[in-house]
Fold these 2 entries.
Entry 1:
Amino acid sequence: MRILLIEDEIKVANFIERGLKEEYYVVDVAKDGENGIYLAEVNVYDLIILDIMLPGKDGVSVCRELRNKKIDVPILMLTAKDRVQDKVLGLDAGADDYLTKPFAFEELLARVRALLRRKNKRTSPVLKVADLELNQLTHKVNRAGKEIMLTMKEYNLLEYLMLNANHIVTRTMISEHVWNESFDSFTNVIDVYINYLRSKIDKGFGTELIHTIRGIGYILKE
Amino acid sequence: MKINSIRFKIRVLFIGILGIILVIYSTYLYFSLYFTLYDEIDDELYSKAEEIAKAIDLFTNLNETHSGDFLSKVKKVIILEEFPDPDEINPLQQQWLQKVDKLNLKDDYIDLLTIKGESLVRSNNLKRSLFFLNSTMVMDLKEGVPVYKNLKLNKLSIRAVSFPYFFQESELYIIQVGTSLKPTLHILKNRLIHILASIPIILLLSSLFGKVFVTRLLRPVFDITRTASKITNDNLSARVKNDHADEEMKYLVSAFNDMISRLESSFNAISDFSSQVAHELKTPLTIIKGESDIALRKERAKEEYQKAIKTILEETERMLKVIEGLLMLTKLDFPSKAFNFEQFNLIELLTEIYEQSRLLAVHKGIHVDINVSQEPLFISGDRLHLRRLFLNLIDNSIKYTDRNGNIRIVATKKDQKTVVSISDTGIGIAKEDLSKIFDRFFHIDRTGKNAVPSTGLGLSIAKSIVDIHNGFIEVTSKIGEGSTFTVSLPSI
C-alpha cells in the first residue's frame, strides 16, 4: 500500500512517515502543494494524506486540483483548524476524511485502514486466497494454519498480489504500489522478491499460488 | 404603546404643547372678543346718553322757561309721554322720535338722577334705580367721566352707564342708560362652546397624525433594533438599509453600519489571530503527541527513545517561546503598566548589547562591529524593552547569516532623531515578504537548509516596542546580500 504524505512541517511529516512505515506502508513525502500534485500525477497512490496549512498552495486548493485532474485516490485531510466550516470546506473540496491536529496516531492509522478498505471494497482486514491468509491489522501471514515470517517488502508484495488475486499484475503495477519514489525500475528487484516469496509461501505446501505470466507479470491464484 | 416608549413620550409632549398653545390662543381670542363686545356696548351706551342729553338741551332751549318746567320737558324726552296726537307733534319731537327708533331706546332702561342719587324721571320699564353711585363714582362724574357697570335687573344681565349731564353748563344731573346684555352673552357663549368643542377634536386628530408621523420618524430605530438583534459573533454581515430621508437618521444608520463594519473587521482579525495562535500551538503539540504515540507503540532501542524525547523537548521549547511572545505582545498592548520610561544615553546601551552579541555571534563565526557617534545620544525610553528590541534584531541577523558573515551596529543623530541601524550579510528577505515581516505569526516559506525555527512573533514584538516609543522601524533587504533594520527614536 503506497501512501503520499503532503506536509510542510518537517517534524510532523517525519513522525507520520516513520509510523506508517512501521505499519508496512510505502510512504512518499511532499513538502508543499506543488510537489504533492506532481508526485500524485506521476505515481499511483492508494491514499493521500494532505495537510491544509501549506506554504504557497494550500491544502484545499491542492485537493481541488487533484480532483480536477481526475485523481480519485482517497484523501485524508490533516489540519489544526477545527471549526465546522473548515471541515465542510475540506470535505467539499473532495477530501474523503478529516482529522484535526493534534491527533492520536492510532486514530490516523484506523482512518487510513478504513479509507483503504473502502477503496478496495472490502469489510474485513483479513485477505484470503485458498489456504493462504494475510491479516492487514496484525500483519501476520498463515498458510494452512502455519505462520510464515516475512520481511517488510515481502509483506508489501504479497499484500498487493493478494489484493489483486486472480488478476494479472505487471511489474510496473508492482513497482508503483509496493515501492516508493526512490525505486529504480531498471533492476530485477521485483523478480528477486517474487522468488523470496515463492520460497516462503509455495515451497512445501503442495499447490503453487504464485504464477509467472511470461513477458507480462505475475498472478496469484489457486 | 408602552408608557416609557419614545413614541408615547413624543406624542404626549406634542399633544401637551399643542393643547397649551390652543388653550392660550383660544383664551386670548375669547377675551379679545369679550372686551371688543363690551367696548362696543359701552360706546353705544355713551352715545345714547349723549343723544339723550342733547335732546334734553334742545327741548329745554326751545321753550325758555324756569326749571319747574324742566322735568316735564325731560319726561317728554325719556318717557316719550305727552304726545297727544301725531298732528300736534312739533318737528323737534318728530325728529327725536325717529332718533329713539334708530337708537332702539325703547327697550333700554333710562333714568335721570340728581347728583345725590334721587331719581327725577325714569323710563316706564324701570321700577327702581339701575345702580347706586359710590363716592369715587361721584368724583369721576363730577369731573365729567362716565361710569360703567354690569348689573342684574329682574334676573336680566344689564350693562349700564352713568353719564354726567351739566344742565345749562352749571347744574349736574346724571343720565343712566342700561341695555340688555343678552345678545352679547349669547355670542360669547356660542364662541366658548365652539372653542371647548374644537380643542379636543383638534388634539385627537393631531394625536392620530402624530402617531403616524412619529412611527415613520422612528422607523430607522426599529430597523436598527431588528438588525442589531440579528447580529451575533458568528454573523456580523447584517447592515441596516440606509434609505431614510431624515438627515439625522441617515447619520445614525450610517454610524451604526460603520460600527458594525469596524466590529466585523476586528472580530475577523481576532478570529484570524486566534486561529493562527491555535495553529502555532497545535503544530508542536501534534509533534509531541505523535512522537510519544509512536515511541510507545512497541519496544524500541534506547537511541530511538532519546531521539523522540529530544524532539519532544525541542517542541516544548518552541511552544514556550510562542506563549512567551504572546504574553509579551499582550503586555505591549497595555504599555502603561509594562513600561518604565527614563532618560538615558543610548550609546551605553548599544555598547552593552554589542558586547553581548559578540559572544552570541562568535559561535557561528560571525563578526560583529559597532560604529556610534562620540557624543552621547540621549533618548527617553524603557531600557529593558529597548534592550529586548535590539537583541531581537541582532538575534535575527545571527540566525539568518552564514558563517564568516558580518553584522554592523550603527547609531547616529539625524534631524532630531536617533537612528540605529543593524545590518547583516545574511540571506536577505524577498521583496514580496518585506511588507509582511512585522505581522504576527508571519513565517517566510523556507524549506531545506534555510529552514530556521521561529515563532513568527519576534519582529512583531520589535515593532510594538518601537511604536510605544513613538519611533519608526523599517527594513531594506536584498536576497543573497543581506538585510538592514533601521530604528528611529525621537531624541531629547
Note: The interface with chain B takes residues 8-12, 15-16, 18-19, 22, 31-32, 53, 55-56, 80-81, 83, 101-106 of chain A (CB under 8 Å).
Entry 2:
Amino acid sequence: MIGNVPLSDVLLVSGALFAIGIAGALLRRNAIQIFLAIELMMNAANLALLGYGAAMGTREGQILVFFVIAIAAAEASVGLAIFVALFRHTETIDVNKINLLKW
Amino acid sequence: MTTLPLWLIPVIPLAGFAVNALLGTKLGKSFVSAVGVGAAGLATVVAYSRLIPFVSGSHATVIEPVTSWIAVGDLSIDIAFRLDPLSALMLSFVTFVAFLIHVYSIGYMRHEATDAGYARFFAYLNLFLFAMLTLVLAESFLLMFVGWEGVGLCSYLLVGYYFDKEYAAAAGRKAFVVNRIGDYGFLLGMFGIFAVFGSLNYSEVFRKAAEQPAQFSPALAAICLCLFVGAVGKSAQVPLYVWLPDAMAGPTPVSALIHAATMVTAGVYMVARCNVLFRLAPAMMVVVAVIGCFTALFAGTIAVAQNDLKKVLAYSTISQLGYMFLACGVGAFPVGMFHVMTHACFKACLFLGAGSVMHAMAGDLDIRHMGGLKSKMPITFVTFLIATLAIAGIPPFAGFFSKDAILSSAFATPDVRRVLWFVGLATAGLTAFYMFRIVSLTFLGTFRGSHEQEHHLHESPSSMTFPLIVLGALSVVVGFVGLPAVFGEHANLIEPFLAPIVAPIAGHEAAVEALPHATEWLLMAVSVAVASSGLYLAYRWYAKEGGRVPARIAAAFPGAYALVADKFRIDELYGVLFVRPFNRLARVLWKVVDVLIIDGVLNAAAFLVELCGDFLRFLQTGNVRNYALTFFLGLIALLVFVVGAF
C-alpha cells in the first residue's frame, strides 16, 4: 500500500512496465532504444521493491532502490560510452549489424 | 674427548657431494679434489675415532637413534645407526679404502676429464660413500635399503660415467637393471620380515627370531630366499653376475672401490647381518653355499680365458665373492666377513694397479699388448705382485688366511657337503693360475705393444702409487688378525671379535666341530700346494714359454676354448631368454597398446567433442537480440518452474 494505492495495483504497473521493457529490448534494433528498454525493466523491478517494502512496512525496499538508482547511473554512463566508442568505430549502433563475436 | 655421533660418518660425504655437485664446476679441479678427498678423509677420521674405543673397549652394540622417520599405525621406524662388531669391521675398511681410492682418483682422473666431469666424478664418489656408510651403519632393514639402493644408483652413474660412449651407457643400464631384479628380492624379503615380525629393526627382528625359532622358522625359508636373491644381485653371483664384468666400463677407481672392495660385498654383509634368520632356515644355508661355491668355480673358469686385464679382475671378484658366500653358507659367517676384509685390500690394490697400467698404456687394457712392464713401473709391479700372491692364497699374505679359513670351514661340514671344499680347493688353484697368468703377461717377458705405447710407458704419479703402497702393505699384514687356530688359542683375533653377532640359537647349534690340528695343518699344506702349482704353471706357461702350451690346448679343443672365452655365452642366453622377448613385448605394448589402443581412445574422445562443437557453435550467432531472447525464454522457464512448484 503506497498512500492509498493497493499493492496489487503497484505490481500490475510494475509487471506492465517490465513487459514493455522486454518487448522493447527484443524488438528494437537501435542500441540506445534497447538500453532504454532495459532501464524500463529495471525501474519495474524498483517499483515492485517499493511496493513490497511499503506493504510490509519496512524501509529496506526504499534503501535498496536508492542503491539501484545510484548504480544504474554509473552503469548508464558506461553503457553510453560503449555506444559512442562503437559508433566511432562502425558508424552504426544497429545491433543486427554488430555481430562480429560469433562462430 | 667427546664421542662424535655416528650419523656424522655418512653425512660428511653427503655434504661433500652437495658441495661438489652444486659448485664443483665453477671451483676448478684442485678445490673439487680438496672437498672430495677431504670429505672421505674426514669421514675416515670420525669413523676411526669411534672404532678405536669400540675395538679396545667392550664391543657392546651401540644404537644411536637420530630421529623418527616413519610412524604409521603399528609401523614405527627411526633413523638409527648401529655400531656393532659387524658394522665396525665393514666401517674400518670401507672408509679407509674409500679414502685411498679418492686420493688415487686425483692422479687418475686429472688427464681424463673436463672440470665439469671431474667435479661430477668426485661428487658421485662421495655420494657413493654416503650410501655405503648408510648401508653399513643402518639399524633397520629400511634404512639399509636406502643405502642399498643408493649404492646401486651410484654404481649406475659411475659405470656410465663416460656416458657419451655407447658401451658405457649400456653397461650402466645393465648394471642397474640386473641389480633391480635383486633389489626386488630384497624388498620382498623385507615385506616378509615385516609381515612375520611386525618390525624392521634388526635388534627386534633378530631377538624375536632367536627367542622363538620354532614359531618363525617356516616363514623364514621364503624370507631368506628373497633376501638372498637381493644379495645375489648386489654381490654378482650366478645367475645375476652378468652386470659386473660389463661394469668395468667405468673409470678404474670406481671398479676398485665399488665393484671390488665395497659395494659388491654388501650382499655378503647383508647375509652375515641376517645370520640369525639364515641359520634358522638350514635349506637356505645350503642354497647360499652351493650358489657361492658354483659361482667361485664358474667365474674362475671364465677368468682363465679373458684377455682384458680388468675383465679378469672382475671375474676374479665374482669368484672371490663366491668364496664369501660359501663361507656364510657353511655357517662360518665371521670367516666370510674376514675374507670380505682381506679381499677389499688386495682387490682394491689389484684394480688400482690395473688402473696404473692402463694409465701407462694410454687406455689399452689388452694383456696381449703388454709384457715386461716390471722395469718400467716397479712400484705398480711390486704391489700388484703382492696383491696377486694374496689373492692366490700364498702364505703369509692376507688372502691365504681368509681363504684357508673358508676352505677348512667347508671341509668341516658333514656329509656330502664336503664336495664344496673340493670345489673351493680347485677354484683356489684356478685363481692362482689366472692371476699369475695376468702378472706374467703384463709385467714379465718382453713388451708386445706398439712403439708409441712403449715410449709412453711410465710409472704413475705419487697420488696413485701412494694408495698402491698402502694397500699392498695391507695385503701383507691384514691377514694376521685371523691366524688359524693351530697358531694358538688366541691367535685368531677376528672370530672372537665377531662372535657376538653369531650368538648361538637354542636348538640350532652349528653342527660344525673344530678340526684336529693335524687335519688343519694338512688342509693348509694342500691348499698351499694347489695354489703354488697353479702359480708355477702360469709362470712357466706364460712367462717362460711364451704361451705356446695354452695355445696348443686352445687349438686342441677349439669349441671348448671358444665357449670359455665367450664367457659360456651366458649374455647371449639371457639375450634370447629375457632381453629379446622383453623387447618384443615392449614393441607390442608400444605399437599396439599405446599407439593403437590408448592413443586411439583418446583421439576418438577428442574427435567426438570436436564433432559436438561443430554443431553447437552455431548457437553463437553474435546477434545480441538472439541472446536476449534466450534470456527471456529462460526467464519464462524459470517462472513456470517456480510457479509450478507451488
Note: The first strand of chain B starts at residue 62 and ends at 72.
